[in-house]
Design a protein that fits this description.
metal ion binding, FTHF_cligase, single chain, Rossmann fold, 200 residues, 11 strands, 4 helices, 20% strand, 26% helix
């Protein structure tokens, strides 16, 4: 039976998913990150020579460290997203092993770790996407700035790209409201497994 008292607006859904994420204890987080990485690597398959953009987690986001280790071991080229301006798509800088990340301006007043400014720009073949919440249809609830929607729209016009959400399973929502500009994910990797959305 549906919960008619469940929130349906994006702000309330985001708050609910983020609260569940924040409530996870450190040991659960670490185990979940390892499990999600294993599921993501299995779904991605052979990534040797492919440029894979991951994200440097901030706040209570799931750790991408196990995923990065697995991707590097599999021969992937790792990149990280960089914000260049409000209302513009993200760009991507190469993150070579051993390179220390530096603070970079993110959305609003957020500072995100990024490769140094002299790191080469690259175009990803795979985009690992952070999110606040998601549903089984592949709809992503972001943080409200629209960077990944703009970026995915640009990349998908130019080339074939795989977009995989990466999150804790507790962030799953019954349904995320979808708008015309929202870009759907190809899959979501969580500690509970892979969600491969069916076509609507």
């Amino acid at each position: 039976m549906p919960d008619h008292n469940a929130p349906t607006d994006k702000a309330s859904l985001r708050a609910a998913a983020l609260a569940r994420r924040a409530a996870l204890d450190p040991s659960s987080r670490a185990a979940a990150a390892e499990a999600a990485a294993a599921h993501a690597l299995e779904w991605l398959g052979d990534v040797a020579g492919e440029v894979v953009s991951v994200f440097a987690p901030i706040g209570t986001e799931i750790s991408t460290d196990p995923l990065v280790r697995g991707l590097r071991a599999a021969g992937a080229i790792i990149a990280l997203p960089v914000v260049i301006a409000k209302d513009k798509p993200l760009v991507f800088r190469l993150w070579e092993e051993g390179t220390e990340l530096v603070p970079s301006d993110g959305p609003g007043f957020i500072v995100i770790p990024a490769p140094p400014a002299d790191a080469p720009m690259v175009e990803p073949d795979v985009l690992v996407v952070p999110l606040a919440g998601f549903d089984a249809r592949g709809h992503r609830l972001g943080y409200g700035a629209g960077f990944y929607d703009r970026t995915l729209a640009r990349l998908r016009r130019a080339k074939r790209i795989e977009a995989i959400g990466y999150a804790f399973s507790v962030q799953q929502l019954p349904a995320v409201p979808a708008e015309s500009h929202d870009e759907r994910l190809d899959a979501i990797a969580t500690d509970a497994g892979i969600i491969c959305p069916a076509e609507d």
